[in-house]
């Protein structure tokens, strides 16, 4: 009983990985599933500065907006 379950499970795993690789995936390359390119270091640096900078500056910009309304 366990032998057949093991064989079916093993075959299922192989089929899933074959389909995964055939449909455009390279099978676990680091950074493959990220929404930005990590190979261009300059562009990555500017994107990270923009992403982190926008989050860090948001409270100060909101405070400035509230204080300038009067």
UniProtKB/TrEMBL annotation:
The keyword ATP-binding does not apply. GO terms for biological process: mitochondrial electron transport, cytochrome c to oxygen. One of its GO terms (cellular component) is mitochondrial inner membrane. It is a single-pass membrane protein. The keyword Mitochondrion applies. SUPFAM superfamilies: Mitochondrial cytochrome c oxidase subunit VIIc (aka VIIIa). It comes from the Eukaryota. Pathway: Energy metabolism; oxidative phosphorylation. This is Cytochrome c oxidase subunit 7C, mitochondrial. It comes from Papilio xuthus.
